[in-house]
Amino acid sequence: MTDVTRMTATAIAAAIASGETSAVDVARAHLDRIAAVDDRVHAFLHVDTEGALAAAGKVDAARAAGEPLGPLAGVPVAVKDVVTTKGVPSTAGSKILEGWKPPYDATIVSRMKDAGLVILGKTNMDEFAMGSSTEWSAYGPTFNPWDLTRIPGGSGGGSSAALAAYEAPLAIGTDTGGSIRQPGAVTGTVGAKPTYGGTSRYGLIAFSSSLDTPGPCARSVEDAALLHAVIAGHDPRDSTSIPAAVPDVVGAARLGATGDLSGVRLGVVREFAGEGAEPGVMAVFRESLEALVKLGAEVVEVSCPHFQYALPAYYLIAPSECSSNLARFDGVRYGLRVGDDGNRALEEVMSVTREAGFGPEVKRRIMIGTYALSSGYYDAYYGQAQKVRTLISRDFAAAFERVDVLVSPTTPFVAFELGSRTADPYQMYLADLFTIPSNLYGGPAISVPAGLSAGLPVGLQVMAPTLADDRMYRVAAALETAVPPLTPPAL
């Protein structure tokens, strides 16, 4: 049998269903792979060996008893450490939550468990999902399996690196400004941001409540769609959850895999052309467009004039919401508590705890957000940014009257070297230049491997209207048929 760690989730599920292998053997193979390579990759913050083997054993027992099982039963999955898992450490990559074991599962975790997926552990991330390189984790950076001197993207670099290193066939990420798609692009994997509200935020440690979106990460488009179908759907415990049917993302991915895009109109955003993407990235993007045209698609240039303001608007809205959300970490209710020697006032304990518990990027965003929300500045900063957000949404609406989806490079550049941008926040923020507009709009977007530049992966981004997640899966799966698989160097 082929090395199970190199198989897609779809193939693993089929092998378990046919009796060719067992869920326990699959889990052991991936746990062994983690033990063999993760000291170099550092994709995981916590590996739940006992829990994974117990869950796999339940799947095997259920299958032996003839019980009906879901299409991903027995398939391992890695979970970004910003998603709560009952009794398993959930730190959000921060010292302020070091060792915290939640008393409940996030909705998406419950749904994966109910579907028979086997959770391997929690993946590394930029602290509280604030970053584009996973260098802002309080527990050290993750390394890109394509080149261990380079970043794996962020904030969910641990999830994407686990996939690229064959430590897991599936992973969960969260996308606030590109934190699923950008890591997918620079590691040669697939990352999908569902429509905002299409996946539950219940149990997600909040960064920016109007933007945070959990979603699937995988090594193939069909695998991502299968995981999307498991975790999506209305959740009454999330006030922003959409009470609508989940689009047939799996059927759309399989339709796209036939390689037929006849009648599909692709929009290329004129304003993105001058945004300074590397020549190698743009070359791969042009080749991708040519491949999609050969499959029957039509390419149309569209104008989205307000996209150029997405980055500054995002870096007012997200820090403002972060300032509000992170106020709960005060050293009183749960998490880290420093300086309580019985002689200090409560306010001083809070201050000392936050100084010790939050990292530099989190502090930077809290200060920006607190300032933007302060008396006399709210309308000038946060209020204006929300107006820009409305204009960006109108740009999307106008574009989708002419085309079915929008396409762009996922990131302006390939994976950069570790340490090369940590001293310059603006250069770091540029990693999300092409991904942020979809978050501000709320529509779905996916990154799919499109080729190599200088030997490193480049992603193509497909953006669709809200609740039209199936469209992006169809186009992404079609491109997948036209692009040779990207295989990272052996670790």
UniProtKB/TrEMBL annotation:
Q: Which GO terms describe its molecular function?
A: ATP binding; glutaminyl-tRNA synthase (glutamine-hydrolyzing) activity
Keywords from the named record: ATP-binding, Ligase, Nucleotide-binding, Protein biosynthesis
What is the top EC class of this enzyme, as a single word? ligase
Domain Amidase: residue ranges: 26-471
According to the UniProt record, one GO cellular component term is: glutamyl-tRNA(Gln) amidotransferase complex
**For this protein, what is the EC number?**
6.3.5.7
Per the UniProt record, one Pfam family is Amidase
Record-annotated active site: K80, S155, S179
What catalytic activity does the UniProt entry give for this protein?
L-glutamyl-tRNA(Gln) + L-glutamine + ATP + H2O = L-glutaminyl-tRNA(Gln) + L-glutamate + ADP + phosphate + H(+)
Q: Offer one example of a GO biological process linked to this entry.
A: translation
| Function of the protein | Allows the formation of correctly charged Gln-tRNA(Gln) through the transamidation of misacylated Glu-tRNA(Gln) in organisms which lack glutaminyl-tRNA synthetase. The reaction takes place in the presence of glutamine and ATP through an activated gamma-phospho-Glu-tRNA(Gln).
State the oligomer form and interacting partners.
Answer: Heterotrimer of A, B and C subunits.
| Family listed | Belongs to the amidase family. GatA subfamily.
Check the record and name the HAMAP family matching this protein.
GatA (MF_00120)
What is the name listed in the Swiss-Prot or TrEMBL entry for this protein?
Glutamyl-tRNA(Gln) amidotransferase subunit A
